[in-house]
Design brief:
Two copies of one chain form a homodimer.
Chain A: E1 9-10, E2 19-20, H1 23-32, H2 36-50, H3 53-65, E3 67-69, H4 70-77, H5 81-93, E4 97-102, E5 105-110, H6 114-128
Antiparallel strand pairs in A: 1-2, 3-5, 4-5
The first copy, chain A, binds a DNA duplex (30 and 30 nucleotides) through residues 8, 19, 52, 54-55, 69-71, 79-89, 101, 103-106.
DNA sequence: CCCACATCTGCACGCATGTTCATATGTTAG
DNA sequence: CTAACATATGAACATGCGTGCAGATGTGGG
């Protein structure tokens, strides 16, 4: 792909179906890509969780409120308690939130500072995206 | 939701449908939540983009390869050129990547360091998630 | 014990989205 | 000019996923 490349290095069993310009660079890139399992864990992990507006609201509520029970989270975000509980299950499973039980009550809070960090970067990106 | 709260502070037009425990805290949380538009921009922005395995692969390819044309990105990630181009359109629209044109060739690269930062945090989360 | 309460869970539906297919668009070579 | 090339784009389909609904589970009070 750089200026010295032999343009049109056609590879693959069906040459017309797989084109590339800079074979060595493509191979180097492929070798550095993580295993598919890790890619899935990233995509379906915190990124996937933060890619939903209601889960974002939940997490931001926890950032502000510290620790909140399910019904207060539902009230804060305008979600049903069922949807809230579903969402929290996912957040628990990915270790984004932790739960403290007190009798019938379940209080949720953020497990670590990663959500805040991620939000900071994303907001920074939005702010500077107009350059 | 804290120990001093009046439990069962029922509010709303349909009282049975909206429960909360700590009214003042819920209100404070609601007041701090960003506008719906900002929430959507976050969810559909970098988080949404990174929540897809193929787009993750594309971005990681750019992290390693620096600048790559569409067909090399497709070859690196194992995606079709059409799917690659579609994905790049989204990444362009959200200012995650930039494009340099040279004749028929379009070379893509990351626009800033935000993707790297986000990936660092997400990987950190995965690594420490087992604590 | 029964009943109330708070939350969790499973199933499935409706909606969202990534990819395929076909074509459009822009650049270049002969 | 025509044809080839690289990429972009639109429509639609197949797949994925968030939420509603119903019920299950666990805790606590009388």
């Amino acid at each position: 792909m750089n200026m010295r490349a032999d343009v049109g290095d056609v590879v693959g069993l069906d040459a017309c179906e797989l084109r590339m310009v800079d074979g060595p660079r493509v191979r180097r890139v492929q070798e550095t890509l993580p295993a598919p399992e890790l890619i899935e864990e990233l995509a379906n992990g915190v990124f996937g969780l933060l890619a939903d507006r209601n889960r974002l609201r939940l997490l931001m509520s926890l950032l502000e409120g510290g620790e909140l029970c399910v019904c207060d989270l539902a009230a804060s975000t305008g979600m049903s308690e069922s949807a809230t509980s579903h969402a929290l299950r996912l957040l628990r499973a990915h270790r984004v939130v932790k739960v403290r039980r007190d009798g019938r009550m379940a209080y949720y809070s953020l497990k670590d500072g990663h959500v805040r960090l991620l939000l900071d970067v994303a907001l920074e990106h939005l702010r500077h995206g107009d350059e």
